Amino acid sequence: MGIPLPLLDTSPLANPRKPDWLKVRAPGGPRYIRLKGLLREWNLHTVCEEAHCPNMGECWEDLTATFMILGDVCTRNCGYCAVAHGRPVWEDREEPERVARAVKALGLEHVVVTSVNRDDLADGGAAMFGATVRAIRREAPGCRVEVLIPDLQGSAEALQTVLDARPDILNHNVETVPRLYKLARHGGRYERSLELFRRARRAAPDLLTKSGLILGLGEEHEELLVTLSDLRAADVNILTLGQYLRPSPQHLPIVRFYRPDEFRELAEAGKRMGFAHVEAGPLVRSSYHAKRQAAGLGS
């Protein structure tokens, strides 16, 4: 597995000052301002804003954004996530068409569509994912479509609804190692997430699949490698690894900051396991460089 990382101290950092490699410029370029205005005009949400993504300025300047459908209130309250939680009231049947028109107007070549968890809906929002993919196909047929879906509460039927729309990439983040699920992923089930990938592979053998983890919640090196191995056993093709950044004092504390060289070592470990592409770094998030990843794999 290469040079092992040192044993980790899994106690929270007393004074988690950000290292230099985590500092980014505040967004505000002309393309960023234009995209923000268009999103407000069309009443669309992005996970870039809702999750306080550190790459928002860079991605928006490149006219790349991850659209978040089904509202901005999540039915789950994960310990690491900045998205608001509560009882959603969002019901907008025209949203898929608005997303598709925005994709066309922006001239996007690769778009990521994600959502909050909607456990209040019988299909977890799968029908809206399908409708959004089909609308983008109509409005922007040359655009690659990646869906970053919740676990849909383990429903095989809901997953098939998404797959029937024929996205180019199916993305679902396991986020952390199984030991930390009770602490970090309220309502999530590790085995349920792995089964989602196994079902997707059986239903769509040629579909590119993708998953990601955030590091620094207290995972140990060996269990992290086991989690990566589990994803490969489920035939996940693309892996993303990034640093957990605490959104507020009410969220889970940061246990440690991973150095850039540690991310490089983990990326090499992932490649040796057989991942077709590994995007790993302190500021990496699930949709970071998604366009480049897909292009590199010929999607």
Summarize the structure in short.
The protein is α/β, with parallel strands linked by helices and 299 residues long. Helices cover 36% and strands 14% of the residues.
3D structure, described in words:
The structure is a single chain. This protein is α/β, with parallel strands linked by helices. The chain has a single domain (25-296), classed as TIM Barrel. 36% of the residues lie in helices and 14% in strands. It has eleven helices and ten strands. The strands form two sheets. It has an eight-stranded mixed sheet with strand order 1-2-5-6-7-8-9-10, with helices on both faces. Strands 3-4 form a two-stranded parallel sheet. Strand 5 (110-115), helix 5 (126-139) and strand 6 (144-148) form a beta-alpha-beta unit. Helix 5 (126-139) packs parallel to helix 6 (156-164), helix 6 (156-164) packs across helix 8 and helix 9 (221-233) runs parallel beside helix 10 (260-273). Mean pLDDT is 85; it is low at 1-9.
